[in-house]
Amino acid sequence: MIPISEAIKIIERESFVLPPETIDLEDSIGRVLAENIKADMDLPPFDRSQMDGFAVRSDDTKNAPVNLRIIGESVAGKGFDQKMKSGEAVRIMTGARVPDGADTVQKVEVTTEKDGFVEILETAKPAQNINKFASEIKIGTKVFAKGEIINEQMIAAFASFGYAKLKVFQKPQVSIFSTGSEIVEIGETPQKDQIRNSNSMMLKILAERAGANAEILPQVHDDFKTLKTAIAKAVGIKAKGKRQKAKSDEKQSQIKNRKSQILIITGGVSVGDYDFTKPVLRELGAEIFFEKVSLKPGKPAVFARLNDVLIFGLPGNPVSVAVTFYLFARYAIWRAQAAKNCELKRGFAVCSDKIKGAKERDCYLPVSLSTNKKGELIIESLRFSGSSNFIAFSRADALVFIPQGKNLEKDDVAEILFLLN
Ligand code: AMP
Ligand code: MG
Question: CATH says 48-131 is which class?
Fold first, then answer.
């Protein structure tokens, strides 16, 4: 059994980084920058008025009210090019250039205009209502760095600096399938002893949220040979040896060999008589990097490589799937895109209640978060009854870390991983 930190180090060591590609800005949300982004101009590019009003000299308004002669106007896109002198005013619009000679703008609401003159009713302080030249950013400044994940708030900056196209790292291709003879598809009605497949869709969405192209492959029954064929096909190799045609094999024979860069399998990794994922990986000659992690939930998670495909075998319980995905598979997906931060964002929060840990393993348990009037982030337990409880998990905002052998008590400050992007 290896510690979680060791497992993550192994994933970092064994995972790959894809080459860059160029895409349109409008398709860039959630992608990882493969270039540094620089300001190609000063912003604002000139002293810019924040108000509709009059550009004036602050000295002239000291003894307001005062009458100044209007000598012209400065509008957005066409400034006033002469120098303004004492005793003069220039009508100015929001976004327009403040003319030479003026050092302040008085808003139109505190002025009255008559016969080519404006009465400035209140004193204007120097630089008021002006965005100074280059006060937001100077030309050549690095705005965003290679490896940053692009979000909505960044788009205006890209647009402003002319990045209609962006260099980003390619998306990894992820294939997903579930194992389990009890599993039926979402659209089917479970018969006696059956449940629906909740893992595959959850993983597809999680993988896509981490920037991957994800596809769900047909699920596989708990049958050694069928699983062997399914894994072999998913990684693009031939399964050697004569195989008997099993019941669920029909589905498998319909799918062609395909190859993603990452394969995620759920179920069949524990020690039950029908848990075949690890034996099949061995039989196919996969390199197995780890197969037991000091983690609750998720101890039997396996990480391997076969024919250049990284394989994550996650335990079947939906909450274990989510936790091990967030800690391990998600890391490899972001790493493939050369993201600077491949792990979930860490933070600290205060426990509102006792939460039990585990004797022999570190825990990452799903919790919800709230805030209190003291400005603290509060951990609310999800009355988490076990790793099959995806109903409770559906309210999770974070995973709380409980070190091996410890419990969390009310008012303890605990480390959390945010699930919210
Ligand atoms: P396993 O890891 O195969 O022993 O499965 C552990 C538990 O997770 C069992 O109760 C399974 O029925 C359940 N399980 C496995 N695969 C899925 C799935 N795709 N969707 C929902 N539950 C699953
Ligand atoms: Mg199973």
Answer: mainly beta
Return the ligand 1 atom nearest residue 198 CA: 20
Ligand 1 site: residues with CB under 6 angstroms? 178, 180, 182-183, 195, 197-199, 266-270, 272, 315-318, 388
The tokens describing 99, both together, are 């003319």
Q: Kindly give the pairing relationship between strand 362-371 and strand 398-402.
A: antiparallel
pLDDT by position in tens, the chain (length 421): 999 999 999 999 999 999 999 999 999 999 999 999 999 999 999 999 999 999 999 999 999 999 999 999 999 999 999 999 999 999 999 999 999 999 999 999 999 999 999 999 999 999 999 999 999 999 999 999 999 999 999 999 999 999 999 999 999 999 999 999 999 999 999 999 999 999 999 999 999 999 999 999 999 999 999 999 999 999 999 887 544 444 555 565 555 666 799 999 999 999 999 999 999 999 999 999 999 999 999 999 999 999 999 999 999 999 999 999 999 999 999 999 999 999 999 999 999 999 999 999 999 999 999 999 999 999 999 876 778 889 999 999 999 999 999 999 999 999 999 997 6
Q: Would you kindly state where each structural domain of the chain is located, as residue ranges?
A: 4-19+171-336, 26-41+149-168, 48-131, 346-418
- Residue 191 sits at the vertex; the CA angle it makes with 188 and 193, to the nearest 5 degrees, is 125
Mutation pick for ligand 1 pocket among 227, 274, 317 (CB with most ligand atoms within 8 Å)? 317
Q: Which of 192, 193, 195 for a ligand 1 pocket mutation test, highest count of atoms within 8 Å of Cβ?
A: 195
Write out the two tokens for 355. 């939460």
Q: What is the CATH number of domain 346-418?
A: 2.40.340.10
Cα 298 to Cα 191: distance, rounded to the nearest angstrom: 28
- Count CB atoms within 10 A of the CB of residue 231: 29
How far are the Cα atoms of 53, 58, 94, 160, 389 from residue 72, in angstroms, in the given order? Answer: 12, 18, 15, 30, 71
The secondary structure of residue 156, as a DSSP letter, is H
Q: Work out the burial of residue 71: count CB atoms within 10 Å of its CB; fewer than 13 is exposed, 13-18 middle, 19 or more buried.
A: middle
Intrachain domains 48-131 and 346-418 with the same fold: no
Q: Which superfamily does 4-19+171-336 belong to?
A: MoaB/Mog-like domain (3.40.980.10)
The strands making up 213-216's β-sheet, listed across from edge to edge, are 213-216, 173-178, 262-266, 309-314, 302-306, 287-290
